[in-house]
UniProtKB/TrEMBL annotation:
Pfam families noted in UniProt: DUF4147 (PF13660), MOFRL (PF05161)
UniProt KW keywords: Kinase, Transferase
Xref: InterPro entries: GK-like_C_sf, GK_N_sf, MOFRL, MOFRL_assoc_dom, MOFRL_protein
Domain MOFRL-associated: 8-235
GO molecular function, one term: kinase activity
Occurrences of domain MOFRL (ranges): 312-420
Official protein name in the record: Glycerate kinase
Entry superkingdom: Bacteria
Amino acid sequence: MTDHRPLLRAIFDAAVAAAHPDRILAAQLPPAPRGRIVCLAAGKGAAAMAAATERHYLDTLGLDPARLIGIATTRHGHRVPTRAIEVIEAGHPMPDAEGLRGAEASLALAATATPDDLLLVLLSGGGSANWILPAEGITLAQKQQTTRALLRSGAPIGEVNAVRKHLSRIKGGRLARAGQNAAEIVTLAISDVPRDEPSAIASGPTVPDPTTLADARALVARYQLDLDDAIRAALDDPRNESVKAGDDAFARARFAIIATPRQSLDASIKVARDAGYEVVDLGADLEGEARDVAASHAQLAREARAAGKKLAILSGGELTVTVRGNGRGGPNQEYALALAQHLADLPEVAALAADTDGADGGAGNATDPAGALIDARTFAKIEELQLDPAATLANNDATTLFEHTGDLLLTGPTLTNVNDIRVILV
């Protein structure tokens, strides 16, 4: 029986490489200004982006090190060595006190920018959790409770961020307002959101926000979120409205996306095609409940198998999980487990589902799994150990099952994030 795992891993690795800061950032960096470069970075790729920035300006261009300052706030375990830019490791997906420190320091540093300075903002997925700066009257604990409720609700990331932007002093265009005295504000972003919406990436700290307080209140009602009274009061306070198009904060601001889920999916597709597979491209912006999407994709795989096709079914985007159990896992592991339920009788089908940042759900640790792989070995192990995929899925406990079968994908931090890569090989 063919071992498909090396090819599955190569397909995943191609997606990550296409979005790595070491490969993509330098060519997009703006010229040095007359004064300083004030570099503020947030997200899982923040430290890697800061290091690439230092190499470009200090080594390639020979800039005086005194003219480059900054802070990169990244997820715990995602630090890389830097020289001029301070790295702060913070919580994700649950924000913590270090994220508060990083956001406060970043906002204060932005406010020091002068008309001779460039404010360079580098964003990647995870920035919303890493830059945590609650609105007036809200404590960190209350913001954490709100984040927990949002993540368990099954709401897509754009809706999650619509609420977070109205409870923050840095999101929703507020960082641009703090740094508007700079000669220019240049934001370079690695997109991890469907359709690459700028205001959703790291909750849009330097771009106009199209969502409103009323939108945020409607989402709280729709998902029946149990929130503290202080949070509800903040969402009723007009002072917490985000910054809108036309504000002076954006007069000298520009925004560019330097890596997208689509580019990474295309890189994965090329590997599959080069291996001789016909490809079904389901797009880079998939959303939906992980187990439901898995059922749909499993049906495509069954049809391809019945037709005798050598087929690779690929997709990107960000699926969600409505948490009803008390287990461990993330949307990619839940997708893989649901696939295993539907495909257990097809030994020549294999699949991988993983987050390109190297962490799928989990407890916010650098050792969290990126996702999971399944194939005939998985099905045999489930039977041998008498595991119950249906019960495990009901408890949202995919991590435990895949620990038993040995099918977790453990990559460690990849230092980028362009959402998920899912591939089924038939």
